[in-house]
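Hi R.,

As promised, here are both runs. First protein below:
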Amino acid sequence: MGKLYCGQGVYSIDPDSHSSSLEKVVFGVDDDADGLIKPNGEVIGKTAHRLESRISLLNGNMLYGQKDLIEAFDAAFMGNSNEVVLVVAISDANHPVEDFTTITGGGAIVQPSNHGQAFRALRVWHLQLSVALDAIYLIPSSAATITERAVPVKPLPTVVMVHGGPNLRITNALNTYYYIRRGERFVSMPIDGIRNYDLADIVTVTQYAIEKDYADRDRLLVAGWSQRGFLSSLCSVPDGIHGYEWQFQASIPGAGICDSDSMALTSDLDSVFQPDLNNHRVTWNMNRDDTRNRRACPLWEFSDVIEESKQKGIMIVPPMLILHGENDERCPLAQA
């Protein structure tokens, strides 16, 4: 369990106790619990750790881990030994979900299923940055002629797909919109540092892809839905967010917030979950002179950016395709 916008951990409760208090057992800080099973009386958990999926005992002993998304799993202990038979369901960008089985301790991995022989469309690179950021770059195989440096022959038009949540991730899976939470240590940064951290991370990853000749700096598009839609809007009003010689040429923000103060009590998040999302900086908890929320609101950036655009005679705000559900109860249509 965990907060709506925070990491999920494993907690215990004594059913015979009159107290309803929970005791933290494991997970939820640097990783995020995503499922539990109990074979032979031993609890085993599946977690998301950055871009890696892991299967671990509750004592922290990792039984299996890899960067592809583990969508389902099961396990059984081998008699009285410590060996565990694992079955995992895994997909990546070129393959639908397949079943794999292995024995912990170095056993061979066997694939009994073969559903995806026709899926060979994309190449995947994991971008390795010097700071603690993770990203994957997907390239259609028709454009993936590779140099000796393992990059495309020429930089490619690039869509930057921002993850949402803010505590979620996009992984190397057949459905690249599949998210899993990433832990409260990660999420504490964007919740308390919107625009200070998450926007800078988008810029850093994009700049890295440009420097490594993956992405064409003149053909960049940013897109996303919900939290990612909000960040896509922020990327569209880049008033001093970076000093690099590029900008996004288009954006597709979907169902994103443009002014969090004006959303107060208009969302189904109500007075319980909206403070959780905004680090308790909501209208009824703030001094009337407190304008910190404006820093993370795209709507407040437009005036200065448009004035700068007029003075310099250049386009700063790119063409935007704004998508929003007419009856969206989480982020009302007025936010579009």
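And here is the second one, sequence first, then its structure tokens:
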Amino acid sequence: MKGKTSAKPKLTFHPIYTGNVPVFSPTSSPELDALLTSFRTKIFVPAHLLKRHRDLIYKPTKSKMLSAAPEPITVDIGTEKVTLEPVDRYKDGPYHPSDIARVLSLLSKTSSPASASVSTPDSTTPASSSSSSSDWSNLIPFLQGLHASSRTLNAAQLEKTARLANTSGQQGILTEAIRRVESTGFTLTALPVVREVILGAHLRAAQANWDEAGIAKAFRQAETTIEALEDARHCGGRGISAADPRAQPDIIGVVVELAAAHALKSHGGADFDAGLVATYVTRLRATWHHASFPALDPTSLRASRTALNEANHALMRWAPVAHGLRLAARVLEPRSELGVWLVQATKEVDAVVKATAEALRSANKGSRPRGLSVLEGVESAAV
């Protein structure tokens, strides 16, 4: 009919309820803020959309509708209203694993050069207070966003995350990420990951100079880790093989160390909670046949980076265990069956730790591997 124009159809969408998109707190790094925002808008938000909405932003033929619409097109994601915008999944956004590594690196950085020098994977010293805990609070929503986007971290990435959290003194955030495994994807199934997480409990006590409160927190973290291993979302529900984290004496040994330290600092040197130190020593003894010590040849260590790394990691594992055996021997009756075994095991491990440390020092002139840092922290511990 003359004089009438047909109105453009209005694009409307029903609200969707797929959970809230993770939200980040402002950090001390503009680069980190920009990278987290990019992850959120380009990856996390699309992952919470229905397929028809994802098609609108991803498919060139359909994304033209967004550009041609007279008004912004929005959808509801949980309690948030999100404006749909075209996204080139091949060019826009942080899609490379190096982008995830950059986020983790920025989280661990500090603002002062002096403290930054101790935030490396080869150091056990925690970053200074300028490394804001509020920055690290973004780790959990970051992991949740990755997990919801089917980009859950692999074992190597989880190990690196744990290592950076440990060296930054952020073991509490790490423990919380593990507790929320269903939403973060931080699983304790790979042995290197579990070893780094349990080492973090030892480092937590060391970073607190082995004071009573620090030991108590570290012991709770170690117990929480051991208990989590029995959860079906981690190792629980499957048979225990020789490679299972639950069968590793170096992992149980850290729990023995912290339990014994807790007994000495908080219980007057007596066992506690119906013999918890004895319980963990018994468990350690039962797994002792799985102990694996490094083959030490200084010449091969100097020639082989792989052999050097293996020796370094062995020292990181066994130095806390040697410490734990000595502490437990002060708590348990020396003439008891466990007391006698502790003396024998201590001699065995002390010899390994001493030889490994000497080999590393000989092969690393002018540098200090992380294993030596762990050992020096044990040697200076006043428990």
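A quick note on the second one: The beta strands are 74-77, 80-83. Let me know what you think.

Best,
J.
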